[in-house]
Amino acid sequence: MRRVYEALTRAEAVLAGTFLVLMVVLIFTGGVARLVRHPQNWTIDLATCFFAWAAFMCADVAWRKGSMMSIDLVVGRLPHRLQRAMLYANYLIISAFLVYAVYAGVHLAWVSRARSFQGIPSVSYSWVTMSLPVGALLLLLTTGLKIRTALAEDGLVRAAGETAGETAGEDRPHDQAQP
């Protein structure tokens, strides 16, 4: 399961970067086309689609790597136990919002299925709106893993890949391969 998740995260990072590059190329191409008096309206529509997908994927990559901006001016001065309680409360609020975003995003994609791009009339706008529930699901998965990691740090659950002997403080001999 870990390999599947690692493959998913690598693919997500590559797709996010690719979408960002394509977005810039399309906007530049559309600008140059307008400059030479041959506007290509579809470039902006496609760039909008790439932007929506890249925004959510990049948010998940940043959340997973701990690169999101945070302000811990008040929480950093609290006792450790209260800091941990605030961390769990934060994760629960984020999770609740993401569950709602998945629900609302699926509804939005369903409602907008008949709408098409202005510059690409044969393509449904749901391709853009599906970025919300898919991105929210990715972020929810990452948040769930962060919750599990926090619980393992607090000794409330076993860490992923940890055996019962390791939890009890028994070290595995160095010559045994890890499964």
Question: What labels describe this entry?
Answer:
single chain; 179 residues; mainly alpha; 0% strand
Describe what you observe in this structure:
The protein has 179 residues and is mainly alpha-helical. It has helices spanning 2-35, 42-65, 80-111, 126-129, 131-153, 164-167. The chain has one domain (2-160). The protein is built from six helices and no strands. Helix 1 packs antiparallel against helix 2 (42-65) and helix 2 (42-65) runs parallel beside helix 5. The longest helix is centred in the N-terminal third of the chain and has 34 residues, at 2-35. It is elongated.
What is this structure, in a nutshell?
By secondary structure, the protein is mostly helical. Helices cover 68% and strands 0% of the residues.
The class by helix and strand makeup works out as mainly alpha
Query: Hey, roughly how much beta strand do the residues contain?
Result: under 5%
Q: What's the overall geometry?
A: elongated
Helix content: 55-70%
Helix count equals 6
Integer average pLDDT: 88
- Note the gap between the termini: 13 Å
N-to-C SSE string, H for helix and E for strand: HHHHHH
CA radius of gyration is 22 Å
Main sheet properties: none
Contiguous low-pLDDT stretches (5 residues minimum) are 167-179
